[in-house]
TrEMBL record:
Family: Belongs to the cytochrome P450 family.
Pfam (any one): p450
GO molecular function, one term: iron ion binding
Keyword presence, Iron: yes
This protein's record includes keyword Signal: no
Function summary: Involved in the coupling of aromatic side chains of the heptapeptide of vancomycin.
Pathways per UniProt: Antibiotic biosynthesis; vancomycin biosynthesis
Protein name per the record: Cytochrome P450
Keywords annotated in UniProt: Heme, Iron, Metal-binding, Monooxygenase, Oxidoreductase
Segments passing through the bilayer: none
Length: 408
């Protein structure tokens, strides 16, 4: 077993991408030479990078490795000296994804029935209506558009607004606050202000539904909580905030990147067009290939723990890099190639273990409907500029594109 003290060369994380569609070169080098390696975050704090598929799964399933964002050793990219500021910044995270069992298990149980495959399939006709409606509006405006603004952002925003019972006319408010919170370049004061404004808005929304419930997830969550008595009002608000933030930006980014991936690989797109029944397999492969939330596997070791033969000391941060794991050739042959015929179901885009994304059924269904409908209705769709010239979100927690100009 390799000991932490034997590590002599410490490099910085994150590393730049050699090209927009590929992960940093260092991921493959680390996976081959040292799949559990010590690096430095921008804050100067050490962190252990885990880059193999096996290693990522091990970290995400190990109860000795915590998701608590307020733990002093948690691998934040920036330093927060005031613990009260830290609590405010991660109030929504500590409602679910920042909790460990048994608290995490109990709260997840409140939500699990809302995101079953059966319930999501029941939503499918409405998602289809939303996608068709957005494409109708896009086509009516002419022969070109920014697909991010016309389709990628509105589809998950509309779907999530209806599911949660959030007025869609308020989408610009929560979209702008979400973008600030996930941008690496946002200052602490700016993050705290955006977080406070979002929480204040949702506090009013939840309070209104407590008085007058509707037919939506938030109202049902309030009723379940009344029966079980798990959450205080503020904790309920934080949980709703998490659902809103986690379910919107990620799906929007995948719609944009997935469209680029298919347009840049017409042979793969032809498979989907020849048989729309392959959509679930196509979506799994796109999720594997892009793995947009690479730092979702941020953790901290609660005790000394061995990961793939390397000892990580208690109190040190761990990054289980899903993108690196999803490009592990030991699991996915020729990972640098989009191959929609491959079985990519073991991908780590939704994580693994107790914290595996609770909304994955909804996200996959939205992606399946969007891709099949878009390319069927706009078969001449093409990029207006080469994909290499687009502006990619290198400064955000979830990868994507800022604009996606297309023509038809």
């Amino acid at each position: 077993m390799t000991d932490a003290g034997e590590t002599t060369q410490i490099k910085a994380y994150p590393m730049p991408r050699p090209q927009p569609m590929h992960p940093p070169r260092e991921y493959a080098e680390l996976r081959q030479q040292c799949p559990v390696a010590r690096h430095l975050l921008p804050s100067g704090r050490p962190v252990w990078l885990v880059t193999s598929h096996e290693g990522v799964r091990t970290v995400l399933a190990d109860p000795r490795i915590s998701s608590d964002r307020t733990h002093p050793g948690f691998p934040l990219p920036y330093e927060v000296a005031d613990p009260e500021v830290l609590k405010k910044l991660f109030r929504f995270s500590q409602s679910l994804i920042g909790l460990d069992p048994p608290d995490h298990t109990a709260r997840r149980r409140l939500l699990i029935s809302e995101f079953t495959a059966r319930r999501m399939q029941a939503l499918r006709p409405r998602i289809e209506e939303i996608v068709h409606g957005r494409i109708d509006e896009m086509l009516a405006k002419g022969s070109g558009a920014d697909l991010v603004q016309e389709l990628a952002l509105p589809v998950p925003s509309l779907a999530l607004s209806e599911l949660l019972g959030v007025p869609y006319q308020d989408r610009e408010f929560f979209e702008s606050r979400t973008k600030i919170q996930i941008n690496h370049n946002s200052g602490l004061d700016e993050r705290a202000r955006a977080n406070g404004e979002l929480m204040s808005y949702l506090d009013g929304l939840v309070a209104a539904k407590e008085q007058e419930p509707g037919d939506d997830l938030v109202s049902r969550l309030i009723e379940k909580n009344r029966e079980q008595g798990q959450l205080e009002h503020g904790e309920l608000v934080a949980l709703v905030a998490l659902l809103l933030i986690a379910g919107y930006e990620t799906t929007a980014n995948m719609i944009g990147l997935g469209t680029i991936g298919l347009l840049d690989n017409p042979g793969q797109l032809a498979v989907l067009m020849a048989d729309p029944g392959t959509a679930p397999q196509v979506v799994d492969e796109l999720l594997r290939y892009f793995s947009i939330s690479d730092t979702a596997g941020s953790r901290v070791a609660l005790t000394d723990v061995e990961i793939c033969g390397t000892r990580v000391p208690a109190g040190e941060g761990v990054l289980a890099l899903g993108l690196a794991g999803n490009w592990d050739p030991a699991v996915f042959a020729e990972p640098e190639r989009i191959d929609v015929r491959r079985d990519a179901r073991r991908h780590l885009a939704f994580g693994h273990g107790p914290h595996q994304c609770i909304g994955q059924n909804m996200a996959k269904m939205e992606l399946e409907v969007t891709f099949t409908t878009l390319f069927r209705r706009v078969p001449s769709l093409r990029l207006a500029v080469p994909s290499a010239q687009l502006r990619y979100k290198d400064d955000a927690n979830t990868y994507g594109v800022y604009e996606l100009p297309v023509e038809w």
